[in-house]
Specification:
Layout (H helix, E strand, L loop, with lengths): L1 H19 L4 E4 L2 H5 L7 E2 H5 L4 E4 L7 E5 L2 E5 L5 E3 L5 E2 L2 E4 L5 E8 L2 H9 L8 E18 L9 H8 E18 L10 E8 L5 E19 L2 E4 L4 H4 L8 H8 L5
Parallel strand pairs: 1-14
Antiparallel strand pairs: 1-8, 2-7, 3-4, 3-8, 4-5, 5-6, 9-13, 10-11, 10-13, 11-12, 12-13
Bound molecules: zinc ion.
The site of zinc ion has 6 residues, from strand 12.
């Protein structure tokens, strides 16, 4: 019987290992806590550096747009000017993974963010899984935003973006799009569909992307069946009122294409 049981366990491991051997996507915080004005960070970048090298989010106090690339953490201020952050800084919301693309391809002559998403969608095997996507390109045009840190008491995110969001344009700039695509059902835990941040090759400009034009790009796609959620340990989160918000309100503020 013991032999039989061990044999069955071994068979199960063999069957399941391709999925569980995948690198997972880890998210510290939820987009719902941002929507409800809970911007105090509790997870350090040092903790996240242990589990990922590619990601996006924001920092403690919602002081801008975060990009994690090649293991380094950068924050764009409201003007889109980026600087590297110390690992001791904390975040209320960051999505991160150990980027390991299973598929790579090129795209040419992309005229808008919607066209980019359609070109990537054609390469994905499912709309119901999680993807991390890296796009390296020369960009004739990028429209992006960043957020100036709000003062306390914190208002909900839809209020903060009305007063503290700065939209800016970049022209003829080389760099990388850091993208996470999530199933629609993940809202309001995370941003549904495409969430896209940019950082320039010289690491001096960055932001949350609304639109792009691309001449040609190299794209790497990592698919995973695993999404791990780290809930914040801040008092603001634990005592906070996390009333659900509409899917539409999250897409309006955070999704690349505002459907
Ligand atoms: Zn963003």
């Amino acid at each position: 019987m013991i032999f039989l049981r061990n044999f069955i366990i071994l068979c199960l491991m063999i069957v399941s290992s391709p999925i569980y051997a995948e690198d997972k996507i880890i998210q510290a915080g939820t987009v719902l806590n941002l929507m409800q004005g809970i911007y105090t960070g509790s997870t350090t970048f040092a903790e996240l550096e242990q589990v990922g090298n590619f990601g996006l989010g924001t920092n403690n106090g919602l002081g801008g747009e975060l990009v994690v690339i090649d293991g380094k953490f950068y924050l764009a201020d409201e003007h889109g000017d980026a600087k590297e952050l110390p690992l001791s800084d904390k975040t209320p919301y960051t999505t991160i993974t150990k980027f390991a693309p299973q598929k790579q391809f090129k795209v040419n002559n992309i005229a808008s963010i919607a066209e980019l998403e359609q070109a990537i969608d054609k390469q994905l095997s499912s709309q119901n899984l999680f993807y991390a996507i890296r796009v390296d390109a020369e960009f004739p045009y990028i429209k992006a935003r960043s957020i100036k840190a709000p003062s306390k008491p914190y208002l909900p995110l839809d209020q903060v973006v009305k007063t503290n969001q700065n939209v800016f344009e970049l022209n003829n700039i080389s760099g990388t799009l850091v993208i996470f695509k999530s199933p629609a059902f993940i809202s309001p835990t995370s941003v549904p569909d495409y969430h896209i941040h940019f950082i320039s090759s010289d690491r001096k400009k960055a932001g949350h992307v609304f639109d792009v034009k691309i001449g040609s790009a190299n794209i790497g796609v990592m698919q995973t069946h695993q999404f791990e959620l780290w809930l914040p340990s801040s008092k603001e989160y634990e005592q906070g009122d996390l009333q659900p918000v509409s899917d539409h309100s999250i897409r309006t503020i955070e999704s690349a294409t505002q459907k």
